[in-house]
Amino acid sequence: MAKFIVEQSGPLRGEVDVSGSKNAVLPILAATLMAEGKCEIYDVPNLRDVDVMCRILRSMGASVEEDWETHTITTEIGSVLADEVPYELVKRMRASIFAMGPLLARTGKARIALPGGCSIGDRPIDLHNKGMRSLGARVTTDLGMVEVEAEKLQGSLIYLDFPSVGATENIMMAATMAEGLTTIENAAEEPEIVDLANFLNKMGARIKGAGTDTIRIEGVEKLRGARHTVIPDRIETGTFMVAAAITRGDVLIRNCVPDHVKPVIAKLMECGVTVNDEVEGLRVRGDIRKLVATDIKTMPYPGFPTDMQALFMALLSTVDGASTVIETVFENRFMHAAELSRMGANIKVNGRTAIVPGKNPLVGAQVISTDLRAGAALVLAGLMAKGTTEISEIYHIERGYDSFMEKLVSLGANIRRCED
Ligand code: EPZ
User: Fold this and answer.
1) How far is CA 227 from the centre of its chain?
2) Exposure winner among 94, 120, 164, 377, fewest CB in 10 A?
3) How many other CB atoms are there within 10 angstroms of residue 304's CB atom?
């Protein structure tokens, strides 16, 4: 198993380009299953999760070409599509569930191994199933598989008990080819939903309201191939903003959408970080004034993103004063707190609240990456900690960040990868 060896590094300085969004490209690739014809997707990040999604499309009978020189994926869907996503692919990536809506819309059936939970929570799919049932599908789960089937999908009104990102995306995809109007109320509003809706509309779908809590989808007979450029990854953007702040550096982050990271900008500025929206990108400086504590509470978009919680906890471990971190989206997303405490952060967790005392200088240690964002947070903490930090289970990180180590090294980080 590979690990990262991170030495205390000076302030990060320079420029970094953000890659395409993991959480936008995964549902977009799944949506190509509904196209009669070729799709070309640009600015695709080179990630393990993208590789798994391409395998899923191929296992369905699609032809998929990956060109990592140009970060382009081309898919061509023939008339025959399998309707089952095997467990060995689903267990590698929960986002396999995004095949449910497209397969149901295109073939009238989908059999997908139930995505297990993960370290951050049980990750149920009851809202996905509720949406499919509302559209007229029969949903059965047995032997670890979920099966959805319908001769013809009927548009309906669907209220989401929680603004689930995945459920909103799956239902929106299934509804594009249902008969009549579907309205999703209390829908998730993340930018990745908007990007997916823009792609589906290029394919001929008729979606309005993506990015608000009410999305209306007028069903159409079929969808055609389309070209699309994926939006920049807002969580990678936030990650490099925190990297500049935690090392007290000065970094220009290019190819990002400042509008998508407003809560992160606001919270960094509360800590005393300088963030300037320049023509070239976002310039983030942690070297101008002493950084101080602030409190964060994760919420669905446009609130503070849960995916930035671990990264921000690492930063708050290095500032002067105690901070409170409240996680409202996932039930178990503080695993990184124990690892940061091994580095001297002395974080106290009580249910969904963590108290980060700050002040304590971090010291290098051997730590474990428990999920994608926790791993990235430990890398950033290691840049600041005295001595050496060894981070194992880094496959989590490589699932969701394109060239993470290389980008950090280009900014002056002292980090290397080695086999355990
Ligand atoms: C997406 O996961 C992202 N993944 C996650 O990013 C992100 O943390 C999450 O949205 C929240 O923003 C992708 O887009 C591939 P949810 P998703 O459905 O769709 C509960 C990362 O680090 N829920 O909005 O699974 C669920 O248990 C990953 O890039 C139900 O109860 O998130 C959770 O508590 C991690 N029933 C909450 O909703 C359901 O049917 C949010 O889940 C579905 C979800």
Assistant:
1) 22
2) 94
3) 24
Atom 19 of ligand 1, nearest CA residue: 166
- Indicate the residue among 229, 245, 273 that finishes a domain: 229
pTM over 0.90: yes
Q: Read out DSSP for 196-208?
A: HHHHHHHTT-EEE
E strands in 155-273: 157-159, 181-185, 206-208, 214-218, 223-224, 227-229, 250-254
pLDDT tens figures, 97-106: 999 999 999 9
Distance CA 153, CA 149 (A): 9
Do residue 256 and residue 174 come from a single domain?
Answer: no
Task: Please check whether residue 359 is in contact with residue 378, taking contact to mean a CB–CB distance below 8 angstroms.
Answer: no
Ligand 1 pocket, 400 CB below 6 A? Answer: yes
Place of tokens 């409170």: 324
Same domain, 272 and 378: yes
Q: Is there an atom of ligand 1 within 6 Å of 128 CB?
A: yes
- Has 118 been annotated as catalytic? yes
